[in-house]
Amino acid sequence: MIENDELAAIQTRVADYFEKLYRPGTAQFHAIVHAVENPATGVIAFSGPVYEAEGGFPVTRLALLGTDGTVRLLGNAGANDTDPKWSPDGTQLAFLSDRGRGGGNFQLFLADADTSEVQIAGPVLEGEAVESFAWSADGRRILIQSADAGADAAGSASTARIGSADVARPSWMPTVETGSHDNLWRRARVWDIAANRLTAIGTAGQTVWEADWCGSDEIVAILSSSPTEGGWYQTEIGIAPASGGAFARFARPDVELARVCGSPDGRTIAIVEGRFHRTVALGTLTLYDRATGERRQPAIGAEVSALAWRDSARLFFAGFAAPGSVAGTHDLSTGETAIEWRSPGTGGRKVPAATPSGHTGAIVPGHAFDRYAHIIRVDNDGGERVVLDLAHDGARAILDAMRPAQAIRWQGRDGLEIMGYLALPAGVERPPLVAFIHGGPSHLFRDSWSFDNPLAALLVSSGYAVLFPNPRGSSGRGLDFASRVIDDMAGEDAHDILAGVDHVIANHDVDPTQLFVTGGSYGGFMTCWLVGQTDRFKAACAIAPLTDMRSQFFTAHHPEFLSLYSGGDPYDVGGVFDQRSPLARANTVVTPTLLIAGEQDKTTPSSQAVQYHHALVLGGVPSELVLYPEEGHAAARFEAQIDQGIRVLRWFRTWEGRNTGPRP
Description:
Blueprint: H1 4-22, E1 34-37, E2 44-52, E3 55-65, E4 71-74, E5 81-86, E6 92-97, E7 107-112, E8 118-121, E9 128-135, E10 141-148, E11 186-192, E12 197-201, E13 207-214, E14 218-224, E15 236-241, E16 248-251, E17 256-262, E18 268-274, E19 284-289, E20 295-296, E21 303-311, E22 314-321, E23 324-331, E24 337-343, E25 346-347, E26 355-357, E27 361-368, E28 371-378, E29 384-389, H2 393-400, E30 406-411, E31 417-423, E32 433-437, H3 454-461, E33 465-470, H4 479-483, H5 492-507, E34 515-520, H6 522-531, E35 539-543, H7 549-555, H8 559-566, H9 576-579, E36 593-598, H10 607-618, E37 623-628, H11 638-654
Parallel strand pairs: 32-33, 32-34, 34-35, 35-36, 36-37
Antiparallel strand pairs: 1-2, 2-3, 3-4, 5-6, 6-7, 7-8, 9-10, 10-11, 11-12, 13-14, 14-15, 15-16, 17-18, 18-19, 19-20, 21-22, 22-23, 23-24, 25-27, 26-27, 27-28, 28-29, 30-31, 31-33
Helix pairs in contact: 1-2, 1-11, 7-8
Pfam family, one: PD40
Protein name: S9 family peptidase
Keywords: Hydrolase, Protease, Serine protease
């Protein structure tokens, strides 16, 4: 065990790290989620998370970046303002806010572009939370997509539910499920601003996951007949009149769908198709002819994650072209694609994001492992400049302790090329090596600030080398690569990760005797699986893991996902659900394993971590179980992030000197 003074040093290091990173109470944005330019004035509206002085959960704030570089915060502390979108003529700014309604109960608001004061509050949808919206081309109507309060949030979201409600109930009152999905639906409506009139789009039994205008008279949407999170894996494309009525099926691809985007003239529907999760949508650009239904996938040299029409013939996109991110425009009339921005780093959060500006320009919320959050303006002539840099002394101190991430490549057992990134601490000879595994499996690591997880930069700045592998099944390299994990989760993908560890040991100056493994969600599942396959890791930390496929299937909110990716059947005793469950091999584990979960998690319920922890304890393997009562799929509260960071560093430091080997 580590000494008290060393534990105190870890506690101080972690607390200092998060204080420097987030600077609570200073209105410091620590990421940029949305950034859009006013087409008339050039003012950029952006939003991102901020921690307030008392800590707690982050609040999303909205700000305006003037053409002179000045930044002005909008709204009030304590309320969440997000998703800014300018009207087509630039006179109004629409955004979502939960001001005055309680955390997460988002409604639509409009502000005057000149004064930034709210002039019109959008329609209040009682018992619902607005998830997204889109202006009509003439700026007179807004398409609103909403979810009933209490509906499940996306699987990879940190929260568990959409919206919230203050309901007084006796302490003895039970929670009741009926299976009827009452009050869990998602809907679309068109709001006529001048008339203040709402028109319902769709009908009972149609869940609207995403929606957009298709010309002026139609709405195109991603739909399912099931309102549950698992229903998202069973979607189709539908079209309905903007004047109201049911959606009619337009197409039903056999893959996942996201980012539906109708052209201004209504002739073309753009969408992203592939194998991915709802908040990690990165796949193949697909274009549908509205009149004929003809489907085509133009070769643009990238997987896409953001779409917007510059005009009816030119489609703007942002995406990933391994190992970096790109933004560009595909011209439907010529079939040509122009890449207007390319970077080894990225833009956006979980997947690349950017928005169009002018004829061929773009606004990019950029960052990289060695570059803190900033906004890039790509001009029409192809030049680019940073117009806002959020780097501060605290962030720079963290950056000084780390080297830039390196893109690396290696081969799987079958010769398939695998890629990932390696981050090394500054000034440390032969550092310990941590394999850090992403969620998904259809997620990916990009060269991004802290690899979208504050634990990553914490580990590197604390003296660890960290490998961020993108094994087969990851997004960003096409449908074939992403599909290679289907029916083989914990198969060759596991060997891809181990091969990456071997590659780093053979080609970089790390300590091969000090190996660790960690990850969240699918990364937590793979962490538990790997320690059941090998004894080479000194210690492991599994966050929000899946450990037993059968109990996961019957307790998570999206069992359809597990059926799709495992190819198994929970009633097939001895089948895939047994063969590929880490719990089934817990009796072979010798690696000390820390398990962390949120008690509000519906994607990988905390019972998954509990089962695995108890199995290890019964087998005499050192294990620690940490359950955060207020957290969902990932720790978000300031205090919880500090506590989690302390526990991870302490766990790895405790077992650095352990002699690896088989169970006695």
